[in-house]
Design goal:
The protein has helices at residues 17-22, 36-39, 65-73, 81-91, 106-120, 134-147, 164-172, 182-191, 210-213, 216-227, 244-252, 284-293, 310-322, 336-347, 381-388, 409-419, 430-434, 437-453, 456-473, 477-485; strands spanning 96-99, 127-130, 155-158, 177-180, 204-208, 234-239, 258-261, 272-278, 302-306, 327-330, 353-356, 369-374, 398-404, 424-425. By secondary structure, the chain is α/β, with parallel strands linked by helices. It folds into two domains: 36-41 and 56-261, Rossmann fold; 272-440, 3-Layer(aba) Sandwich (Rossmann fold). The strands form two sheets. A seven-stranded parallel sheet has the order 3-4-2-5-6-1-7, with helices on both faces. Strands 10-11-9-12-13-8-14 form a seven-stranded parallel sheet, with helices on both faces. The longest helix has 18 residues, at 456-473. The structure holds adenosine monophosphate (AMP). Adenosine monophosphate is lined by residues 76, 79-80, 83, 102-108, 363, 365, 394. Residues 17-56 are annotated as: Disordered.
């Protein structure tokens, strides 16, 4: 896999640059409160303020009364830092680049001001929100619908794996808010010329998890999408991590987008216990079973187990089923309907364990997740931060246990450097863990046979050649090889 960190967006990338040429520099938002720190401070990249303006209410941020009441009804008593800083700027018309931890309330930080403006002049399509994964698109739609419940909001999700004809028909009816993954919206726009005007009056473009959306795979899609959007829109970029692409965009915008960064250099929360267990790769499954079978005793309501590849995720699914564990699996080799079904079974509590690849590492907000297991150590530290961010959300506690083999030591060092702390050792009695070794090895043999029988490998090969074909069509194959040599 290519390192997205090495890719930098080109200078003509039409994100902020178009709008800035025609836009005056942004003024600070109008005074909404007596608190001088919020209203008079110019945008400052190092701004990280937990203590300032902590007493502000949603009403102080300039939001309409209906929005304030909706927040109260949803149990959102006061704005989180990212909301306190970004909502007034967005209401004042600024473009925003915000780095905020997952679970920090960043969705409401852009959804509330968009809905506020929509309520003043309702029409569709008012906002296009682009997000990297299908599951996040559905989750964002849920939040938009909840926050816009008193507006008769029409919000639609346009993602791959679902019926395109139906999506085109819904888009033609111009919903207020469209939440999309980049590939599908691009194809819909290109294949349906009659849809080209649907976004022509859009006021907002949001890139959620912007770092990933801007990875090279999506750059081509974004270029197409931009052609259908007006130049005088507001562009809002929200991301949990800073990447070279985002840095470059911010510089290209001559720093005129309001930049907000929360928790600088501090990317995992204190309420999260982060532990590791150093083991041989052959006994990972034995340790996994041991920890999962103790969940109830440890008071763990639900757990997500991350594997780095779809193949291992599928094999783990078969293995744990063989070991009578109640599990669901989420990875990109499944159809969209199976992915949604798996996620819903987990979210509703019908199964306590979700096996997932990094497709589930970002943004998913499931309050019952008390444990994250890194069955494989992620290759990039930022994926670790995203994964463990599925637990210990909104001030709650949580545990992350990472399985470290001798090949992973350098990866763990990089993670520790990134998060600025060392992982603690996970305490367990080896002889107790290994008591189940025969049972687990036997189940693994059966699971491996089942995987041969269900034709997974053939399907995976087919998918791979299809993907290579698509990359070649996009002209991305050559570029990847070139980057590899550097
Ligand atoms: P997000 O970072 O957007 O994924 O949000 C994480 C969770 O925090 C969601 O379940 C939101 O409903 C919740 N949330 C957002 N804003 C607030 C707030 N001001 N007070 C309490 N909860 C919030």
């Amino acid at each position: 896999m290519e390192d997205p960190e090495t890719l930098v967006v080109e200078e003509d990338f039409p994100l902020f640059s178009n709008s800035f040429s025609s836009k005056k520099p942004q003024n600070p938002p109008p005074p909404q409160s007596q608190n001088p720190s919020l209203v008079s401070k110019p945008p400052n990249p190092t701004e990280s303020t937990e203590s300032d303006s902590g007493s502000l209410t949603f009403s102080d941020l300039g939001l309409a009364e209906w929005a304030v009441q909706t927040c109260a009804a949803l149990g959102m008593k006061k704005p989180t830092p990212v909301q306190r800083h970004c909502i007034p700027r967005i209401l004042a018309g600024a473009d925003v680049l915000a780095l905020a931890q997952t679970g920090s309330g960043k969705t409401a930080a852009f959804a509330l001001p968009i809905l506020h403006r929509l309520s003043e002049n309702p029409y569709g399509v008012f906002a296009l929100v682009v997000t990297p994964t299908r599951e996040l698109a559905y989750q964002l739609a849920e939040q938009f619908r909840a926050l816009g419940s008193s507006l008769h909001l029409r919000c639609t999700v346009v993602v791959g794996g679902m019926d395109m004809i139906n999506q085109a028909q819904v888009l033609a009816q111009r919903p207020h808010v469209v939440i999309a993954t980049p590939g599908r919206i691009k194809v819909l726009l290109e294949d349906n010329p009659d849809l080209s005007f649907v976004f022509s009056r859009a006021k907002f473009l949001v890139l959620d998890e912007a770092d990933r959306v801007l990875d090279v795979g999506f750059e081509a899609e974004l270029r197409v999408i931009f052609q259908y959007l007006p130049k005088d829109r507001q562009t809002l970029l929200f991301s949990a991590t800073m990447t070279n692409n985002l840095q470059a965009l911010h510089q290209l915008s001559a720093n005129r987008a309001y930049f907000y960064e929360a928790y600088e250099g501090f990317k995992t929360v204190d309420t999260l216990k982060q532990q590791y267990v150093f083991i041989h790769k052959n006994v990972k499954d034995v340790y996994l079973l041991h920890i999962l079978s103790q969940m109830e005793d440890l008071g763990i309501r639900s757990a997500i187990v991350f594997a780095s590849r779809c193949r291992s995720c599928h094999l783990l699914n078969l293995l744990l089923e063989e070991l009578d564990q109640s599990v669901a699996a989420l990875h990109s080799h499944k159809s969209q309907s199976l992915r949604l079904a798996a996620l819903n079974r987990f979210k509703s509590g019908r199964v306590p364990i979700l096996l997932a690849t990094d497709v589930a590492s970002r943004g998913l907000d499931i309050p019952t997740v008390d444990l994250v297991i890194n069955y494989d150590i992620p290759r990039y530290p930022r994926d670790y931060v995203h994964r463990v961010g599925r637990t210990a959300r909104a001030g709650r506690g949580g545990l992350a246990v990472s399985f470290v083999t001798e090949n992973d030591v350098h990866l763990v060092r990089a993670i520790e450097a990134e998060i600025g702390k060392q992982l603690d050792e996970f305490e367990c009695k080896e002889n107790e863990v290994l008591a189940d070794i025969t049972k687990v090895f036997k189940a693994k043999r059966i699971a491996t046979m089942k995987m041969i029988d269900d034709g997974y490998e053939e399907k995976a090969k087919e998918r791979k050649s299809q993907k290579l074909k698509t990359l070649a069509e996009k002209g991305l194959l050559k570029r990847k090889r070139k980057n590899k040599k550097l």
